[in-house]
TrEMBL record:
Entry keyword set: Molybdenum, Oxidoreductase
SMART domains noted in UniProt: Ald_Xan_dh_C
Superkingdom as given in the UniProt entry: Bacteria
GO terms for MF: iron ion binding; oxidoreductase activity
Domain named Aldehyde oxidase/xanthine dehydrogenase a/b hammerhead: residues: 31-151
Name assigned to this protein: Carbon monoxide dehydrogenase/molybdopterin binding aldehyde oxidase
Organism of this sequence: Acidisphaera rubrifaciens HS-AP3
């Protein structure tokens, strides 16, 4: 039996919900003791190297593999013919929607290896497996696919133009999804009677995800159970198990996914990738585990990219600056195939999130997703949420300048007020909570908005242009999904939380433990987290869409209620009392304990677990365990919101932009761990700064990527980010047990418009009313020169 825990060692209040508890995993990771996919090894493993197309578009006539097969150490060369012969399927399209005309969206499945045609540089065409990585690499270089080049197209607007090269016979005009949402007639009428209309053509640049850990996988096959095992970085093993089972053509119980530590993803590692399929096939064919780790240069070509939209955003206002309607039209680039959630950012999520915090009577969204000869696009930190907020916030600043209305006042005139809650938005979503005017006022005060004139004068004295920008945002978290909440009392006195979300850098272990410690009074240091084994799960929505705390947190909380319910029955028997006389309470002195009401007779929850392990004498029908496996049915989406204020300086001689001051006030509802939330905000803000000022994936006319290394792709550095001033203005959500709203993607949603609005504010005195991302020094300098001409 565990020894009683005194108040000084328990100190539950230190780990309660709302406390800034350091991440449990940090000591392990900082010592280099993390176990990422490439750190793992399986006995008898062999090595795989991908053979990728060096041509963006062409007919694949054949692949001569004879020389490679004869090279030392080579065990196999896998092509699509081998996969087809084995009955292996193409990658599934995980989402299906209706086109504007009511027809079903065409499911454009990607083959695991190129079949008949290559469609982007980096597309895998074969896999070499050898005893060593060096042998596999040498043999891969000996394979030269026979490809007849075809014209390539890389920009979505070019691919949608008449006469553009056609990538897929099933997609006339290269249109993968023709999306429409809103009331066209009402929107058109609002624009017709508007006193003022603001229009902006906006390019949302393509970005590389650049996770610290490249993609890697180890595929095994267990012949006894006829079961595949895939060790791989992912965002959720439960969903990936289903996808990979579907591709391999086996029941889900014959597929196991194992994920250890994950070095970043931001959406990119959420889905199934083609490389995993031939690895599994080779593992079964050879009877040996097959490992693969991507090179960084290959990651630029093969990891799903993010963003890449060309939009016309329009805002109609009356003479007093009240919004009448907005309209969004344009195209989104999905790359050569429709990867995981590829169509969401340019369509549904933009439509939902562009409404933001503003009362707008009518909206109309008509966008198309277009295939091109580029790497497939997938979700990237926000997946349409930052995009939608960026469009409306740029429109507001532009309209304010055009109409001579103060930009702060224009926002205030159009805010959805707290009295309007719950608010039915024109996106058909119901906002449950929020105080958007107060968040704006809080942010302006924290940013010393009224003191800006002095700071601008000081910048001018040094020859710099200075501007300030607002990014007020609201985003919609992912829709409801079933999520597991498992609680297991281990033999060694630890308690394990089991849930289907997955930590790829967020820091789940501490906040999840805080919830459980607060609910059950279990010592924080005894709580562990298990997420990355599909065999342990009965449900799992994975991590994405800023929903993890709401999903797993609610699942853990509900599971804790079930533990208490079961514990009351067990304690009643052991304490020889009626179940109705047993109460459960948590305090710093006793932790969690069951006691007979009105007496001092009690048994602590950890002591109860020990008694059960030791074989307590129980009557029939009373289960000798506190363990729970529960499925939370999923709370509705929440609406995190906030207001970011950025100040930038521009060197007019070089075009270089410096973010010199940054303030963010966020409403994330109930915050379980403010330390981790601040870290999430910091990361998202820096990613937004990176896209705003430097990052862009650029292709040449032949479809070759010209920004395929860190010599050419401008990731933000430590010097790119200022010190952040963060504050909170929480309004608890009313739609989930914790009152939380999610925070993982909000940094990007606020920083993109705040930084770009600040930059345009700085440049406006030189006659520049708009500039697209990325605002590189060259682009800013050229705009200044053109304005001066």
């Amino acid at each position: 039996m565990n020894a009683p825990v005194d108040a000084t060692s328990l100190a539950l209040s230190r780990f309660a919900v709302g406390q800034p508890v350091p991440r449990k995993e940090d000591p392990t990771l900082l010592r280099g003791q993390g176990r990422y996919t490439d750190d793992q090894h399986v006995p008898g493993e062999v090595h795989a190297v991908m053979v990728r197309s060096r041509i963006a578009h062409g007919i694949l006539r054949g692949i001569d593999t004879d020389a490679a097969r004869a090279m030392p150490g080579v065990l196999a060369v896998v092509t699509v013919a081998d996969l087809d012969a084995a009955g292996i399927n193409d990658l599934p399209v995980t989402m299906s929607f209706k086109n504007r005309d009511g027809s079903d969206m065409t499911p454009l499945r990607q083959p695991p290896l190129a079949r008949g045609r290559v469609r982007f540089v980096g597309e895998p065409v074969a896999v070499v497996v050898a005893e060593t990585a060096a042998q596999a690499r040498d043999a891969a270089e000996a394979i030269a696919p026979d490809i007849d080049p075809l014209p390539a197209v890389t920009l979505a607007s070019d691919a949608a133009a008449p006469g553009a090269p056609q990538l897929h016979d099933a997609l006339p005009g290269n249109v993968a999804f023709d999306y429409h949402f809103g009331d066209t007639a009402a929107t058109d009428a609002a624009f017709a009677r508007a006193a003022h209309v603001t229009r902006l053509s906006i390019r949302n640049s393509r970005v590389a995800v650049c996770a610290m850990e490249p993609r890697a996988a180890i595929a095994s096959f267990e012949p006894d159970g006829e079961r595949y095992v895939l060790r791989v970085g992912s965002q959720g093993v439960f969903g990936l198990r289903g996808l990979m089972a579907q591709v391999m053509g086996v029941p889900v119980e014959r597929m196991r996914i194992l994920t250890g530590n994950v070095g970043g993803s931001f959406g990119m590692k959420a889905g199934a990738y083609p490389e995993y399929v031939p690895l599994l096939h080779a593992a079964r064919a050879l009877g040996r585990p097959v490992r693969w780790t991507d090179e960084r240069s290959e990651s630029f070509l093969s990891d799903n990219h993010g963003r890449d939209h060309e939009m016309l955003a329009e805002l109609a206002l009356d003479a007093d600056g009240h919004f009448l309607a907005w309209r969004l039209t344009g195209v989104g680039n999905v790359g050569a195939y429709m990867g995981f959630a590829a169509v969401l950012p340019a369509t549904i999520n933009s439509a939902k999130n562009m409404v933001g915090v503003y009362a707008t009577p009518a909206i109309d969204v008509a966008t198309r997703c277009i295939v091109t000869n580029t790497t497939p696009v997938g979700p990237y930190r926000g997946a349409g949420r930052p995009e939608g907020n960026y469009y409306i916030e740029r429109l507001i600043d532009t309209a304010a300048a055009e109409m001579g209305i103060d930009r702060v006042e224009l926002r205030r005139r159009n805010h959805i007020t707290p009295e309007a809650m719950p608010y039915r938005a024109p996106s058909n979503l119901d906002y449950d909570s929020g105080d958007f005017p107060a968040v704006l006022d809080h942010a302006l005060a924290a940013a010393d908005w009224d003191g800006f004139a002095a700071r601008r004068a000081e910048s001018r004295a040094r020859g710099r242009l200075r501007g300030r920008g607002i990014g007020q945002f609201l985003e919609i978290t992912a829709p409801p999904m079933n999520e597991m909440g498992g609680i297991r009392f281990e033999d060694d006195g630890r308690v394990t939380i089991i849930t289907g979300t997955l930590d790829y850098g967020q820091g789940h272990a501490s906040p999840f433990a805080q919830i459980l410690a607060s609910r059950l009074g279990i010592p924080f240091e005894r709580i562990t987290l298990l997420q990355g084994d599909s065999d342990e799960l009965i449900a799992g929505g994975g991590t994405g869409g800023s929903k993890s705390l709401m999903a797993s947190g609610a699942a853990i909380s509900e599971a804790a209620d079930l533990v208490i319910e079961r514990g009351r029955r067990l304690a009643a028997h052991l304490l020889e009392a009626a179940e109705a006389d047993i109460e459960f309470a948590v305090d710093d002195t006793d932790g969690g304990a069951f006691r007979i009401v009105g007496t001092d007779r009690r048994i602590g929850i950890m002591d109860l677990a020990d008694r059960l392990r030791e074989g307590a004498d129980l009557p029939d029908g009373l289960e000798a365990s506190l363990d729970v496996r529960h499925v939370h049915k999923g709370a509705p989406s929440a609406f995190p919101n906030g207001c970011h204020v950025a100040e930038v300086e521009v060197d007019p001689d070089t075009g270089e932009v410096f973010v010199v001051r940054y303030t963010a006030v966020n409403d994330f509802g109930v915050v379980v761990n403010p330390l981790i939330v601040a870290g999430q905000a910091h990361g998202g803000i820096v990613q937004g700064i990176g896209q705003a000022l430097g990052e862009a994936m650029v292709y040449d006319g032949d479809g070759q990527l010209v920004t395929g290394s860190y010599m050419d792709y401008a990731l933000p550095r430590a010097t790119s980010a200022p010190s952040f001033a963060l504050d909170s203005h929480p309004v608890p959500a009313r739609t989930n047990l914790l009152g939380a709203k999610g925070c993982g993607e909000a940094g990007c949603a606020g920083s993109l418009p705040a930084v770009m609005n600040a930059l345009v504010d700085a440049l406006r005195e030189r006659g520049i009313a708009h500039i697209d991302m990325p605002a590189t020094p060259a682009r800013v300098w050229e705009a200044l020169q053109a304005a001066a001409a």
